[in-house]
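Q&A log
Question type: sequence-to-structure
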Amino acid sequence: MSQIVLKARNRSANGSAAARRLRREGRLPGVIYGRAGQAKAIDLDALEFVNGIKNITDTTIVTVDIEGEALNAFVKNTQRTIQDGKIQHVDFYEVEAGVLLRAKVKLFIQGNPVGVRDGGTLEVPIRDVEVECLPKDLPERILVDVSELKANQSIYVRDLGLGEGVRTITGGEQVVAVVKFAKAAEAEAAPAEAAAAETPPVDAKAKAKA
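Response status: OK
Response body:
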């Protein structure tokens, strides 16, 4: 995905009344938080923002151009109305080039496993993987192809191959995807069920007399 650039203006007026006025003008109030905790109040074109973030993830780095000052940032939070889900406010978190960061990258599962076609069930125990890297190496998403997974086979975090510049914080032995074979589970349960069927029922009256 090419770098997304969002045009913004410095915002001096704060408060709910000022925010409502901006929204009536088609603007979206927002804040960019820096790594040191400082906050910069801005506003953006609401429609441009909505269209710009349609396909991003939590780890997509966007460029916010504030009257000529370009900052790289994550879209950390959007506040929406309960009635129609319209975005009312946005928070950004600034990303500094050359500074290591930690982030949770979402997993996107692709493919129809061989084991599922043979009667198994695909399970995905986790939805994201925590990594540490420089901003330039940060993946927006992790694609996991499960097409070749057979019954009782797994894909682990160590198998993902995220690149030399990316270190996984999530343990390498963590299962990302596994195909569990339902037929095997049924076969294991059959002897136990058969044994239970052969056990004679307990006569409650006889037990009481004893």
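Response note: The chain has a mean pLDDT of 88.
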